[in-house]
Amino acid sequence: MTPLYLDCNATTPVDPAVVDAMMPWFREQFGNPHSVNHAFGTAAAAAVEDARRSIARLVGADTREIIFTSGATESNNLAIKGAARFERRMRGSRNRIITVASEHKCVLESVKALAAEGFTTDVLPVGSDGVVETERLARALGDDVILVSVMAANNEIGTLQPLADIGAMTRACGALFHCDAAQAAGRVPLDVNAATIDLMSLSGHKVYGPKGIGVLYVRRRPRARIDPLFSGGGQERTLRSGTVPAPLAIGLGKAAELAATRPEEEAARIGTLARTLMDGLPGTSLNGPPLENRLPGNLNLAIGGVDAGHLISQVPELAFSTGSACTSAVVEPSYVLRAIGLTPEQAASSIRLGIGRFTTSDDITFAIERLNQAINQCRRQA
Ligand SMILES: *Cc1c(COP(=O)(O)O)cnc(C)c1O
Known about the structure:
The protein has 382 residues and is an alpha/beta fold. It is built from twelve helices and 15 strands. A seven-stranded mixed β-sheet has the order 2-8-7-6-5-3-4, sandwiched between helices. A hairpin with a 2-residue loop joins strand 13 and strand 14. It starts with a strand and ends with a helix. The model has no long low-confidence stretch (mean pLDDT 96). The structure holds pyridoxal-5'-phosphate.
């Protein structure tokens, strides 16, 4: 039996329409989109440009501002390291990078790598709702800041950050605003101009697209200048050398197109399912912001007196996550849950449920029934 998938913040299933859109580009239309001397190449190049246009439209960008990468991890590395290294190479006077404690590991590790290269770094705290304290950001901002990196929506607790405020503050001090929007894209409205975003990362597999493809949005006016990570043939406006994987890029384009059709309707449906699920699990408490201020479909619940790892082992018919992460083979409480003030014990009793496009209300009924049984069983055994 296939378990019921409730882990849409880890990855989403590929939409069947996305699979259909990709197939011809794996089979007969296999041309290299950079080999434009013949029909194989020009057909692939044209389809990649169509995809770029759909992605640009989803976030209010210009087509020329969309750079294909292998995913949000690469996009985050490219944005953060690229901005810092460009500034240093041009002998600029700025030396500081600012981020937030609840960011994705790839952002925090990129910032840490820059600290080792001699940049000054600030990691700002968050409140119990996971929102960055903009007062603290205001105090940290100055004319020595190269870049501020704050995510749009958190992958564990669904916190939505005040992007427009952060963008305006960052622009006012002449720094670049980078936003990791891997979770937010396709789930909440995103507009690079409304939030004065200079650099923005997206991931294919978080928006019902394929794995192994992502995007970095790079603003043209005023231009966000970054150094590339890779040396090579200079593809993607010299920012990302390497052959663009046309089938994956075309799949992400289709995913962006689907995300743009009736987004409010989908968000409302998913939000209602999340509320039904939460209300169906008495004796649990919500970690992070209230549902109405949260990424639709994300639930993170502390289940008092229950070890989350044990609970998961009791319900193999449901696929979801714990509030812990396996870092270098040891199970540690989630640093995001710790950052919002949970004790290690509370984090160890927390689970994350991610509802998505293909979750039905019957699925939620089934999940409520099975989770309650398993929770009661764990509590009796404790
Ligand atoms: C999934 C995710 C990433 C990493 O994306 P990949 O495409 O898997 O590299 C980065 N940031 C956030 C917020 C994510 O949810």
